[in-house]
Amino acid sequence: MGRATELARQISWYWATLMGDNHYRRYVEHRRRSHPDEPVVSEREYWRMRHIATESNPGSRCC
After folding, report:
1. Distance CA 7, CA 24 (A)
2. Distance (Å, rounded) from C-alpha 25 to C-alpha 18?
3. Does pLDDT of 48 surpass 80?
4. Which end of the chain is more exposed for a tag (fewer CB within 10 A), N or C?
5. Per-residue DSSP letters for the chain?
6. What is the pTM of this model?
7. Could you tell me how far CA 24 lies from the centroid of its own chain?
């Protein structure tokens, strides 16, 4: 059962990463590690800034 549990955990992590669920958590970890004296924006503000950046710099998106 341990192997099945580990596989389920890995699939869950992959799916969360693919869907963007881990992005804000990674952002917060980065900010606290690299810029500890600066404030961290809320998750709502983080996603707003990300969407604005994506729209203003579409890069290689197909649509």
Report:
1. 24
2. 14
3. yes
4. C
5. -HHHHHHHHHHHHHHHHHHTTTHHHHHHHHHHHH-TTS----HHHHHHHHHHHHHH--TT---
6. 0.63
7. 4
